[in-house]
Specification:
homodecamer, 131 residues, alpha+beta, GTP Cyclohydrolase I, domain 2, four-stranded antiparallel β-sheet, two-stranded antiparallel ribbon, 3 helices, 27% helix, elongated
Chain lengths: 131, 131, 131, 131, 131, 131, 131, 131, 131, 131
């Protein structure tokens, strides 16, 4: 199985991809609703079609509940994708699911702004609200 | 029939103009509502009045249902218009109809920002919501 | 009667001022609501107080019904004001009335952004909705 | 009584401060609701604490009723403040009251954006709606 | 107990941290609802993890009730944090609580935009409404 | 002779076109070399090809000798071109010659930045140095 | 011979490619050195490698001698490249040679700023001085 | 003698206008050539023609010799002009002469960027080099 | 030997690091001096100190001699650094040497603009001229 | 001796102020002249007049000789100033001297851009060339 096939394989099972855990700390103001926005200006992954690097800015905006995400472990979580072949749409949905699992926020939005390819620009936006 | 007449003819039958198909892939997160925005910074068509090239940025924002559009085939779909004489308003409505036919999204907006002509700038905005 | 008096006279009868007609073409997508925005970056008229030229950007945003305005005739309509002494507020209301009369849109907004005079900037915004 | 004391005195009686009148002209389109925005990019007053000049941009956005404000007299009204020691918050509330008294608009907003002092920037926003 | 431990200790008791009082003056227009926005472009505190300085812009937007905050004492209040080891999220919640205690506004929002660290940017937003 | 022919005629004799005089005042610092830059953000003339208005920003930078140009008369000089059919290149060279004749500066540069036409932008730059 | 081979063939003989002539008009101020800058914001050609459209801004800055280039014919000259498969570097050198042949300027610079491809941006700059 | 006449009178004797002194402090690094740039973003004077306020940004760039200018006294020096009717060109030359007299720098440039009046912008630039 | 030690080892022998070759094509206009600027907006390498990714924009400006660099192979050359632990200063000098070896240009400049780390930004600039 | 007097005392002996050492590493490309620019976006010191914090961006551009400065120790060097009462002009000259002593570069420029105080902005620029 060559590299591109491996990437295709991955896309079919993207929801099962095992990613590093994101650490959290106890929110001292969990009695209040407030908003935290964390922007990673240096996201990079691999394009499954070409095997070449993709670049993006990814912004997470959330209202914490019991826990806040620890910034350093979040950065390391993002670095994990550096060698992963994955579509833009999958990146954003995957990050959303992992983030919700990690800190169970009251609300979270994940937004990705991917670099131009062939004169075309792609942005993807997904969100979650705790019921 | 000269070139300009041919263009006029085309405008009357613009809704019948046959365009290339846009390919799609299966949306693995179709259980969720999320948004994809694709911007073509390099759209070009022909002005039916003068026969000279027109230039525009066209942005498609959609919430996918079962299928996502494949980026490369979308780019080729846009390149098709490069030799087509067509009004700004028609471009946007035509792209909207073709896009809906291709991937049947839950919702889609098509926005075109056309270059200045004679000190005048034109923008056109159309949208669709699945009932 | 001097020039300035003539301008004053005009302001009192501004709603009767006869302006060039704006041509239209048949909207092929009149079964759908979509938006067209036309910006004239090069509007000029005469200040009735000083007799000197005024400059502005005027933006028309409308949802067409049966007819779309023809861009070239709209430009010539605007050029008509180049030698007319008229207040900023009157320009925008006059353009709105003429535009509605020409193409009877479902909805239209007219916005004017006039150049700085004496450290003061004026913007005027008017709109119309078909009942 | 020294200069600073005089300024303090003024703040206590700020609502009684007599300012120049703002002239108006008859609104020919008073049957319609439309918006006029006038921005003074060159507002200046005196800081009551230091006796030094303050600078600001002040923007008035209003829906006229029977009368529109005359631009030249509005400019002269603003110039009056050039030698007045007055707090930022008082400037905006005072201008609002005087403006309402002058032309009795359907609605008006007054916004002031004051220059940085000691690394701190102040903006003040007040509004009025005719009942 | 070393410096970093001291910082950790502080985070656990952050809601008890004693800060300088913020002075106020009587709002002469308390019969009206209007908005004041004060932006500190030069906030600095210490990162509890590294002991190195952090930098941020902090913006407070409030609708005063009986009292307005005095700008100079607010600046000195902010300077207090210059030697305090404190998390971004805590800064904003702490400032919000202190501000509410000082002037009991009808409404207030506190927003902090912290400088990039390791390619990651953090913004925090908290608010309060008097019941 | 129709309008367009008249314009063509004018281009051939452009150096003979009689323009309004530019007034001057005595330079009190003529013992020193210093620079004055005056930018007209609102220049307009007629395109000889189409008869439609052209728009440009024109900037004059000069080192005065015995005389400085009077700003108000310079503005009126520019307004003269509003009804003149003239090429971009001719505008700049004509303004340069008239300016030199009016105040005989030590040095002067005239720069014009004309609005986009058909996706093409034109800038023209001419200068003079007294020998 | 397929399309790509045809493009390769063209690159080898690029200096022999026959292009449309650029018209000129007599420079009435040829006794003076002045500068004209013409920027085409809408240049497009074909990438010989992929057969897909390329986009660029091309700026020509020249000091005319006996002749100035006629703007409309220059625009048509540029439109010719719309269907030509040609490298970025060749475009700029070709335009330079054709421009010099057309109007024999005292000096000319040609600068091209080509759109991003694969995260890489290319600019090319060539010039000519009459000896 | 009315106010405007008084202003005219002043222009004739502008070089004799008595202005506040600018204080200095001893340059501890006078053995080295280095550059200090001080920009006053809030300069204001009176237009002698209209009696209305003018606004400008004034930038002083100098290489100190034995003395540096004291910032607070420089600010007060600028505030003096707030009630002086004076032409743009005179402001810059006057500031230059006063600055040289105050600190006798090795070199100094004074640049003024005055706000738009009637669509026209004026900038003035003067300089001095110690021989 | 751990990862960081390996990185340190590499820095000492950085001039011996073997990198992928950069392909070239024959410059058809080598009889002329012209300039090509290629900017890689998506450079990434590893920080030898932390093992975390670094990001930069790298711009190469050169005057070709017999050969031009082939864009695709240059991109692949840059991708090679993605997994290399290397200092900013070394990146630029290494790229310069490799580029000169590949196409032996008449002149070349390499400029790197690296992302902020700890509130500090680094840019490095190196160049070569053929003798 | 109060705090302000202590600051004054310091200014007189500023050239004797003991600052932390800046570490260096061996320049592997010292056979070549290349340029490194390091910008500290987060410089802060104390204003000796008011005792309040000052903020600035400081940029060092140098051509290394045998040694390059180590970035982390440079940052710590800058942090030292956080509690030092010192004039803008002294900061830049002091940093220049310390930097030269640390790495003895072929050439270095130090530039500081200090935040607005009282509507006035100060920039200071100093440089050194090895003889």
């Amino acid at each position: 199985m060559n590299q591109t096939s491996a990437y295709d394989e991955l896309q079919d099972h993207i929801r099962d991809l095992k990613t590093p855990s994101i650490e959290t700390w106890e929110n001292k103001y969990s009695d209040k609703e407030y908003t935290i926005e964390i922007t990673n200006l240096e996201f990079s992954a691999i394009c499954p079609k070409t095997g070449l690097p993709d670049y993006a800015t990814i912004c997470i905006t959330y209202i914490p509940d019991k826990d806040c995400v620890e910034l350093k472990s979040l950065k390391e979580y993002f670095v994990f994708f550096r060698d992963v072949g994955i579509f833009h749409e999958h990146v954003i949905n995957k990050v959303l699911e992992d983030f919700v699992a990690a800190c169970q926020p009251r609300k979270v939005e994940v937004f990705g702004d991917f670099n131009i390819r062939g004169g075309m620009k792609t942005k993807v936006h997904a969100s979650y609200v705790k019921e």
